Amino acid sequence: MPDTAPVPGKHGFAASAVAQVTGGLLVSTMRTDPHQAARTPDLVRRAAGEDFFLTLLTEGSARLRQDDRAAEMGPGDFAIVDSAHPYVFRFDRPFRSVVLQIPRAMLTSRCAVAEHVTAVPFRTTGGTGAFVSPVLRALAEQGHGLGQATTASCVGGAGLCYCRPTPRR
After folding, report:
1. Can you tell me the distance from the alpha carbon of 28 to that of 85, in angstroms, rounded to the nearest whole number?
2. Residue 167, Cα to own-chain centre: how many angstroms?
3. Average pLDDT value for the chain
């Protein structure tokens, strides 16, 4: 059964998250007000895990920076973030997303270039994005009944980050 964690707004900021383990992977759906989430070098050093996070925007827009890459994302787009490196995610408007936490070994065994495609936007208009976006949405909605082998074949603890609201304009 998914856990819901609403965060009441201080100064008008509100967020909610629903997380569930699906086939051994953590799938979260999030809805928040504008904010910036940053994983600093200090947080990377203190963290125990080195997972990847595939983040699919279902509403709103975002800017992501990691290493020397940057991505502008809109509804239906997704990007991969490597928790072993600092990153900044900025959301200037309210948004919704689906986040799939993938253990490093699981992704790198299937995608040798995973560490080199972080902060690269995948679009739903074709190719990988056209396939992965609806699969990830379905996984978030219906995945609670899937086993680990099924989930792993579809994929080809949340990391520490510092979040702060984005100032309203």
Report:
1. 21
2. 22
3. 77
Tokens standing for 99?
């986040």
| pLDDT tops 90 at residue 106 | no
Provide φ and ψ at 82, rounded to 5°: -100, 115
Judged by phi (left if over 0) then psi (alpha if -120 to 50, else beta), residue 26 lies in beta
DSSP string, the chain: --EE--B--STT--EEEEEEEETTEEEEEEEE-SEEEEE-HHHHHH-S---EEEEEEEES-EEEEETTEEEEE-TT-EEEEETTS-EEEEESS-EEEEEEEE-HHHHHTT-TTGGGSBT-PBPTTSHHHHHHHHHHHHHHHHGGG--HHHHHHHT------EEEEPPP-
pTM recorded for the entire structure: 0.74
